[in-house]
Amino acid sequence: MTLSVRWRIADIARAVPDRTALVGFDTDLAEQVLSWREFADRVADAAGALRAVLDRSTRSCAVVPAGNTLPAAIGIAAALTAEVPVFPLNPGTPPTERDALLRLLGRRFERGYLMDAQLRPRRIDLPAGPGPPAGGSAVAYLLATGASTGIPKISARPGPLRYDPVRTPSVVIRQTGWRTEQRQLIVGPLYHAAPFTAFLDALLDSNTVVLQPFFAPQWTVELVRRYAIEWLQLTPTHMREILRLPDLDPAGFASLRAMLHTAARCDADTKRGWIDLLGPERVYELYGATEGIGVTLVRGDEWLARPGTVGRGFLTQIRILDDAGNAVPPGTTGTVFMRTPQRAGRSDYVNDQAIRTTLDGFATVGDHGRLDRDGYLYLEPRDHDIINVGGEKVDPDEVEAALRDHPAVIDAAAVAVPHRTFGSVVGAHVVLHPGASVRRAELAAHCGRRLAGYKIPKHFTFVDQVPRSAAGKIQRWRLAPYHENGATSP
Amino acid sequence: MVTLPEISEVLSAHPGVRRAETAIVRHDGRDVAIAAAELSGYVSGPILRNHVRRELGEDSGLAGVVIVEQMPMAEGVLDVECLASAVAEGRCTLFEDPRDDVERRVAAIWSAQMDTRFVGVNDDFLELGGDSLSALGIIAAVETEFGRSLDVFEFMSAASVRRLAEILR
Questions:
Q1: How far is it, in rounded angstroms, from Cα A420 to Cα A486?
Q2: Contact with chain A for residue B15, Cβ under 8 A
Q3: Could you tell me the domains of chain B?
Q4: Does A355 lie at the interface with B, CB-CB under 8 angstroms?
Q5: Strands A60-65, A86-89: parallel, antiparallel or unpaired by DSSP?
Q6: How far apart are CA A21 and CA A18, in angstroms?
């Protein structure tokens, strides 16, 4: 038995009209609360407004500027209710990137409707792509991905979205301590895949959702305590910043059944910090690309037994293949291919950067890694992130973790710097604590106590912040490039 | 008796198949009918094999389907050597009936939970069309039938009736 989004929201509003559906904050950070009845009414109104302007004979999509606000949440729910494919847009997208994204949408859709903060749909022009828009199956929603490479991609999830009591949320999410009708805090922005899908699951599984409009670690901790949050998804960056808070009290997390982190790789210190804070049974990690080709899951206790692993495939088969396409034995690194039953739900790309697949249905997004004998997966850095120092490979994550270990350092990004002899050496962009100062030589010495010589950064640049995607991945292409002499371009 | 061209014809009519050819291949001292299929969308070998069995009956004799990128041809005819090596290298799952009681009971559970009559003991769960629901259904049914708990990871790493039966023995 499945239900449309429209019927599911109506059902919940009938069953628990006065229970809280959404808690949000306006621009003055005043709390706004919507009961399920109020939420259902607002969604029905917005969906009606969208349907009224919609021309069903043209392929259309809805674009919702998706900060963590009540209008964004209502707009997304309204588009899903009207069964119009919805694209949650980062409201802070610079104009050139925004144009590129709209061009990608234009490859599949002829018309877009922007849902503004007043939830009035406004027609926007989508630049026509090369050739007529591709036809194809119905779409539930579209998500921008590829944030770590700088080349925007949009992945489309087949639709329309349906509620199915045994599949919403998916079995793997249920495995991470999720309960129907739980109280969930959404910290990451709704335009990013993980918070977006957590929001959809919350909507269909009658959660009470608290939307944190922007991340501030102290505030996240306060919201967890104030609303007795039971389930929480964070990125490693969120996790790191929360751990830095002075006087962090484990008692403040007593209501929490589980913290799940996804997306970017999490360094070992941060992981251990959270396992210490919550206990290993409440820390879950999921590795699985937005494209839905498979997932791995690992709980804190498994991670402690195998530090660094991202877990075992969950209803997912994993195969590591070499460049020639042959399977390699456990312990050997290669490209990670996965196969999962949810093929029907697999996303495809709106642009041409398709996922690579094998004849027997395994697929990869290009990540590298290895399996141990028990089937636990360990990821290696992506090729384009590895810094090659005279043939020695340096994982930037390792250098960054070493730098962050210094008391004066908040954040760091390691990059390749062109070098006449070695091809490249390591350079570091470093963010210091406000008011802190440290000499470059001291940072180099600090790294020297933790890293092999060739991994020690030879150049340091102090910056105000390291550019990161909503998922917490470092956007290396946004960093000022280093020149051979170690100077950076402005 | 079903002829090889009839099998090829039924396969070619499947929406996921662009082209199919069938041949008799020598394997393990016996002759087996193997089809090669070029795809237009992803379908697995066991799904295509079962499609033929449903259309033409179990006695169609088709043992397996090899998925190929391009139809292997040698001098204008299907390259049987190529199919034989695919079978020998395990790239083509051959249909095989249960050989003992444990395998029969496990296969019956798969068949009921996956709603398919034809479950070969070497068929891969995902290739046979398994999904998260049938996985949970099989796990629950195995726990009842064999009185032993089974987790999702154990089940997925077994992935076939034969290997699952080995765990349960």
A1: 12
A2: no
A3: 4-88 (3.30.300.30), 101-168 (1.10.1200.10)
A4: no
A5: parallel
A6: 9
How far apart are alpha carbons B136 and A167 in whole angstroms? 11
Contact A118/A135 with Cβ under 8 angstroms?
no
B70 CB neighbour count, 10 Å cutoff: 8
**A460 reaches B (C-beta below 8 A):** no
Chain B, 115 to 134: residues with Cβ < 8 Å from chain A are: 126-127, 130-133
Domain boundaries, chain A: 3-377, 384-478
List, in order, residues 6 or more apart from A118 with CB less than 8 Å away: A71
* Beta strand ranges found along B95-168 (DSSP E): none
B152 with A316: Cβ contact below 8 A: no
B126 Cα to chain A: minimum distance (Å):
6
CATH class held by domain A3-377? alpha beta
For this complex, say whether ipTM is above 0.90: no
Provide the CATH number for the domain formed by A384-478 in this structure: 3.30.300.30
- Could B42 and A315 be called an inter-chain contact, meaning their C-beta atoms sit closer than 8 Å? no
Interface of A with B in 390-419 (CB under 8 A): none
Looking at chain A, the whole-number percentage of residues with pLDDT higher than 70 is 91
**Which residues partner with A414 through β-bridges?**
A428
Reported as a single tens digit per residue, the pLDDT across B18-28 is 999 999 999 98
Residues A308-364: tens digit of each pLDDT: 999 999 989 999 999 888 999 999 999 999 998 755 444 555 544 456 788 888 888
The dihedral built from the CA positions of residue A15, A18, A19 and A21, taken in this order, carries a sign that is positive
Which amino acid belongs to residue B7?
Answer: I
Whether the per-residue pLDDT at A190 is higher than 60: the answer is: yes
Contact (Cβ atoms closer than 8 angstroms) between residue A301 and residue A327: no
* Tokens 């999702």, located at residue: B152
Asked if A316's CB is within 8 angstroms of B156's CB, the reply is yes
